[in-house]
Amino acid sequence: MGRWSLDSSPAYLFTDLMSRMLSPYDLNPLGFNPLRDILNDSIDFERLARAPIKLFVTATRVRTGRGRIFRNAEITTEVLLASACLPTMFRAIEIDGEPYWDGGYAGNPTVTPLVRETDAHDTVVVQINPTERLEPPRTAADILNRLNEISFNSPLAKELRMIALLRQVADPGTGEGARWARMKTHRIKSDMLATFGSSSKLNAEWAFVTKLHEEGRRAAGEFLDAHGADLGERSTADLDVLLAEC
User: Fold this and answer.
1) Cα separation of 225 and 78, whole Å?
2) Is the pLDDT of residue 215 over 90?
3) 206 against 194, higher pLDDT
4) CA distance 109 to 160
5) Measured between alpha carbons, how far is 189 from 211 in angstroms, rounded to an integer?
6) For the residues 78-86, what does the mean pLDDT come to?
7) Which of 72, 101, 120, 189 could form a disulfide with 127 if both were Cys (CB 3.0 to 4.6 A apart)?
8) What is the Cα–Cα distance from 56 to 68, expressed in whole angstroms?
9) Which SS3 state, helix, strand or coil, does residue 108 take?
10) C-alpha span between 83 and 60 (Å, rounded)
11) Cβ count within 10 A of residue 53
């Protein structure tokens, strides 16, 4: 169909129907997740705990709906599974007796620790969920997909709006407000992602994954060509437009 869509795939349609009628607790009572073995084989968590580069991973507490941020020494296979746990596809991941879902519901990504806990002067956001879609969704699947996109984009938009506001009101100095106000913000995005249908998010064909990889490198290269010299100097993302939309 030219959109890498799975809309005509019987397997996708059956899986989509089952996800609306049965929960992962019905369909996957043993909690099997193929990512668990892949993560165990691929990541040296002891080395990650000692890494000089700070890594922050967010998961959402099912009970309260609030996000929890995990740092290098706390990150395990279960934490990474929790951070990518879509509740219609996987059972909630328990960590210390607390069930967690995908962190995108609470922070996507969480910008706060980048400002509070690092000496970085720039935040570069790589956006994979389209913020805008020109055509209104009409099918049930597209409506649900757009609701998910809005939900996942909302936490980031709120934090970026706070940065824009603090830029206008924060006094010069060394306080936290000033740190937020001085943060230079940039965004890497691809308009191509908005052309894909909602079912493409479950398309694991190697040709499609390769296409996404190539598009990511193209978008990053385009950003560096246009704004590489701006890093450390000034923001290139227009955050004031978020204030105008309030």
Assistant:
1) 38
2) yes
3) 206
4) 11
5) 15
6) 95
7) 189
8) 10
9) coil
10) 8
11) 7
pTM given for the model: 0.83
Query: For residue 80, what are its two tokens?
Result: 């990474």
DSSP character string of 106-132: T-TT--HHHHHS---SEEEEE--S-S-
Q: Sign of the C-alpha dihedral, residues 129, 194, 18, 81?
A: negative
Q: Write out the two tokens for 154.
A: 């909302």
Q: What distance in Å separates the CA atoms of residue 192 and residue 215, rounded to the nearest whole number?
A: 8
**Residue pair 36/90 in contact by the 8 Å Cβ criterion:** no
Which DSSP letter does residue 237 get? S
Q: What per-residue string of b and e applies to 122-154 under the rule 16 or more CB within 10 Å gives b?
A: bbbbebebbeeeeeeeeeebbeebeebbeebbe
Calpha distance 117→56 (Å, rounded)? 10
Q: Which amino acid is at 61?
A: R
Tell me, what amino acid is at 57?
V
H helices within the chain, ranges in order? 10-21, 24-27, 34-42, 45-50, 77-83, 112-116, 140-169, 176-182, 206-227, 240-244
